[in-house]
Amino acid sequence: VFLRRERLHLVDADGRIQGPPDLVVEVLSPSTRAYDRHLKRKRYLGAGVPEVWIVDPKDEALEVWTGRASEPRKCRDVVEWAVGRHTLPIQLERLFRTRRSP
Known about the structure:
The chain is α+β, with helices and mostly antiparallel strands.
């Protein structure tokens, strides 16, 4: 999860976030792929999380879900993440590097 600096007040003394974070990143695992991709994503978005990323290590891809979108933005090479006035390009090759042979 990610919270912008100005929203850090949502973290309580026990480290729990009392409200929706700005970003949730869900990494699919083989045993819970369908649950993570569908039910958890819908719950995050329904709880007010503005952006959910579904990382699929098997397909080396990332889905970006926002708001009430019926389809994700699918990324295979780079995802550009906008935080306030800043945009951070993230090369997906770097995320999946450990899976690839040298």
